[in-house]
Design brief:
Two copies of one chain form a homodimer. Chain A is of the alpha/beta class. Chain A has two domains: 257 residues, Rossmann fold (3-Layer(aba) Sandwich), CATH 3.40.50; 97 residues, Orthogonal Bundle (Rna Polymerase Sigma Factor, Chain: A), CATH 1.10.1740. In chain A, 34% of the residues lie in helices and 15% in strands. The first copy, chain A, contains ten helices and 14 strands. The first copy, chain A, has an eight-stranded mixed beta sheet, sandwiched between helices. The first copy, chain A, has a two-stranded antiparallel ribbon with strand order 2-3. Chain A has a two-stranded parallel ribbon with strand order 6-7. In chain A, α8 links the parallel β13 and β14. Chain A is globular, with a radius of gyration of 21 Å. The interface between A and B is large, with 58 and 58 residues.
């Protein structure tokens, strides 16, 4: 066990609003969106040179609340083990900026936000967005904070996609990139799992073509979608370890009740998810992930800062974002003569490992960041 | 390519009805079921000694129509490549019996059958059934046909479970067993995928607690369940090969239409499945698979015929029924000093491989059966 490190204590989510008409955000689809609000949190202190900022990006169902506690909450942010004083993302040294995404339902502009034209929730009037649109919005936030160049951009899963997109879109704005348990593009199997989740939601009559904000969420469909997701986030081994074939009661029920603990767990996870997540956001964000593709020449375009460094991490039992996808990324980077360190971390936790394998991740990230930061202090060396 | 072998030509499904009240079939749950009808087909000729009968058992959504053509049909039975003159299950030598299962919707008694007590479809009045109940019913059919001992019982996936259950329940009735791409018990991951499929069906209001036979199937929920299934039947590699990220049209639609070919394929497969399968049967049969467990001492009980031989086959890219589960079966059999041949067949087709990898399967099964049959002719040698 790693020693338990100090928490950041109480933190607050902040909101940045920009791009009101007529200066709306132009999306990859050509549609325009505005005004745009991004929820974000910051931990640590931005130095005078504004050179110690690290942008942390969350996964599919995450939010800006990455670390510390919100007033009155029992649980800290989703990466609290990694962000704080003395932790991998050390708030004694670095200024950590955690940004939410557009399309979301956690305080940023998304399908459940009010459409300024109708003064009703957007629903399906919300335009389709892409990972590059999410990053374009985040760029406005980073500019607003006066940060010329980020010391690093880091994230797991969809957070890793955003990190890659940051480098693809604004290579001059990032000194280093830490993509974890992610891919340059979704494989057909990854698209397939997303599509089944979307179909589960759209099959629920309560979805009502996205117009359910007065009548109530498509709870059942969204719960099914989340259950599918949960299976893909775990590994066969971690499920065996956590549940095996243990029954909830003695003997089989000979009914369609949940007999096995794993069934009860999935039902519970599905039911709790619908209380904290918007079904339309599920549709928009999975589609953004499916559209994402920075493979081949798309990742490294006219790079003028060959001093960028990558730390690529993947986990052996992650079958949703298998190591082969990270290796392909490393291969592409090396072909472009970019400095990349790759580590395949042993874990039985499957895709969830990026949230769980704190000790291994911390060592690798801490050392990587010190190296970058050292170069930073010495004008590039 | 293997040479194209002759087909059986036109075949017909037959029906065997038994166990009318008061002699109903007593199920593992203690409930009684009757009368019971089993749909079955036979190919080849039963010899005078009735010693050349092979029982072939189908997978989850299969049926008794394993080979040949039904009058007017364009497509043959589900294992036509394997059953016929000169094929692995050579109808010039063997009498092939293909039996459906109770709980099904392909001519055998199941939840869509008329409940003799109400003269309405059973729906959820149908009792929960297990793989051992399916086999208990098949035993009645085999007895009715006057077959003392089966030369072999063979099947893939749930068919393999039935084959294992035949040996567990009636070891003296089988000379050999060919379990393919199967397991002694479902892992929590396998249970989880089944449970999500069931939840997708039960989430559809049209399901109406199983009472939809007048109002119409829960089409949307059943389609979602089937889509999940399809992902698990393929491998990441076979999906990459078949679809990659190919689009249905040029460019992204920036809508929730199916952009990628894999999305269109899954939607199509879901929609066509609901036309040929009953949603309640989906629930009953997946539950039977989840309950199935012949691990440990349950498979080999008081065996009086140590001359039984096993041929266990699995496929490298099958992640739904991974090779490790077949190896565990082989291990259990060897511990009981049972003669077992194991082969892990290279394939990129995932779980579907047992229906596709005809050439490798044929060679192994043909040779295995000849060996058993030879021993048969020479009174055990």
């Amino acid at each position: 066990m790693a020693e338990k490190k100090e928490s950041l204590g109480i933190v607050e989510t902040k909101y940045f609003t920009f791009a009101a008409a007529p200066d709306e955000l132009v999306l990859e689809s050509g549609e325009k969106l505005g005004p745009v609000t991004l929820a974000y949190e910051t931990y640590g202190t931005l130095n005078n040179e504004k050179s110690n900022a690290i942008l942390v990006l969350h996964a599919f169902s995450g939010d800006a609340h990455a670390a510390g506690y919100h007033q009155g909450d029992d649980n800290p942010g989703w990466w609290d083990d990694m962000i704080g004083p003395g932790k991998a993302f050390d708030t004694n040294k670095y200024y950590i900026l955690s940004s939410n995404v557009i399309g979301g339902c956690k305080g940023s502009t998304g399908p459940s936000s009010l459409n300024p034209k109708t003064l009703k929730p957007y629903g399906l009037e919300f335009p389709l967005i892409t990972i590059s649109d999410m990053v374009k919005a985040q760029k406005q936030l980073v500019d607003f904070l006066g940060i010329e160049r980020l010391l690093s951009v880091a994230g797991g899963s969809m957070g890793g996609m955003q990190a890659l997109q940051w480098f693809a879109s604004y290579p001059e704005k990032v000194r280093s990139v830490i993509p974890i348990a992610t891919a340059m593009k979704h494989s057909p199997q990854q698209i397939a799992f997303d599509e089944v989740g979307r179909q589960a939601i759209m099959a629920d009559p309560a979805w009502n073509k996205g117009g359910y904000y007065e009548s109530g969420q498509p709870d059942r469909g969204l719960a099914v979608a989340r259950m599918i997701g949960h299976i893909t986030y775990m590994s066969a081994a971690s499920m065996e370890e956590k549940f095996s074939r243990r029954l909830k009661k003695d003997g089989y029920s000979f009914s369609f009740n949940a007999d096995f603990e794993v069934e009860g767990y999935l039902r519970y996870r599905g039911e709790s998810f619908v209380k904290r997540f918007d079904a339309n956001t599920y549709l928009y964000i999975t589609k953004a992930m499916d559209y994402f593709d920075v493979s081949g020449a798309k990742l490294v375009k006219n790079v003028k800062n060959p001093d960028v460094k990558f730390l690529v991490l993947s986990f052996k039992s992650d079958w949703l974002y298998p190591c082969a996808q990270s290796k392909e990324l490393v291969h592409q980077l090396k072909l472009k003569q970019i400095d990349v360190t790759y580590c395949e971390i042993f874990s039985t936790y499957g895709h969830d490992a990026f949230l769980v394998e704190v000790e291994a991740e911390s060592k690798l990230i801490e050392h990587f960041l010190e190296n970058i930061n050292g170069r930073n202090k010495n004008n590039g060396f």
